[in-house]
Write a structure and sequence with these properties.
The complex is a heterodimer.
Chain A: E1 3-7, E2 11-12, E3 18-25, E4 34-41, E5 47-53, E6 59-61, E7 69-74, E8 79-84, E9 93-101, E10 104-111, E11 115-119
Parallel strand pairs in A: 2-11
Antiparallel strand pairs in A: 1-3, 3-8, 4-5, 4-9, 5-6, 7-8, 9-10, 9-11
Chain B: E1 9-12, E2 18-23, E3 35-40, E4 47-50, E5 64-69, E6 72-77, E7 86-94, E8 98-101, E9 105-109
Parallel strand pairs in B: 1-9
Antiparallel strand pairs in B: 2-6, 3-4, 3-7, 5-6, 7-8, 7-9
The chains are: A mainly beta, B mainly beta.
């Protein structure tokens, strides 16, 4: 069974960088059939796709966040990471790491449990 | 890219069928068949119900069915059950590399 687990700080100060890591088990992170991505959900709000990364390093990001997003994959550790720079209070959300089909990134069958990140001074 | 448009809430009685709409544009829903639907029981993560408009992953009840006409996708829940009370989100490709969600619909079982 595919298992995804987010890790990182639960509190980040405004203007700083949010950094999260997702550990993957039960699946190969080097599979060519999938992207590894991030989706967030602000408290009481809907879902927002942040972006995804292919094991070879190719990344795709939400145009509204692209200038602040950096994603990478560490195949040796079976992990992938998200950095979101210059955070503001509106970046407070539950961040989910996910696996998406590479031929159809709208298909997200596996989700981590999510990690709440508060942006506050 | 704007979010897809869903009704804020839909309700129905047990056993009834309900349909949730998801309206986009010719640049997203109307341009391909990559549309999916998710169910979420907060605070749990969303669960995939349908993909590629009308396909269901294994383990998802046949009571959930997806469809599409033009720029609007729909999710129909037949034989409504108490456990179907949840939030539902549609999702579509927008262009070749962007993914957008609807604002979500709260389903209430009366």
């Amino acid at each position: 069974q595919v298992h995804l687990q987010e890790s990182g700080p639960g509190l980040v100060k405004p203007s700083e960088t949010l950094a999260l890591t997702c550990s993957v088990s039960g699946a190969s992170i080097t599979s060519g059939s999938y992207f590894w991505g991030w989706i967030r959900q602000s408290p009481g709000k809907g879902l927002e796709w942040i972006g995804n990364v292919y094991y070879g390093g190719i990344t795709y990001s939400n145009p509204s966040l692209k200038s602040r997003v950096f994603m990478s994959v560490d195949t040796s550790k079976s992990q992938f990471s998200l950095s979101l720079s210059s955070v503001i209070v509106a970046d407070t959300a539950v961040y989910y790491c996910v696996r998406q089909r590479s031929m159809d990134p709208t298909t997200t069958q596996y989700w981590g449990h999510g990690i709440l990140v508060n942006v506050s001074s | 890219q704007s979010a897809l448009t869903q009704p804020a809430s839909v309700s129905g009685s047990p056993g009834q069928s309900i349909t949730i709409s998801c309206t986009g544009t010719s640049s997203d829903i109307g341009s391909h068949d990559f549309v999916s639907w998710y169910q979420q029981h907060p605070p749990k993560p969303p669960r995939l119900l349908t993909y590629e408009v009308n396909k269901r992953p294994s383990g998802v009840s046949s009571r959930f069915s997806g469809s599409k006409s033009g720029n609007t996708a729909s999710l129909t829940i037949s034989g409504l059950q108490a456990e179907d009370e949840a939030d539902y989100y549609c999702c579509s490709n927008a262009g070749t590399t962007n993914v957008i969600f609807g604002g979500g619909t709260k389903v209430t079982v009366l």
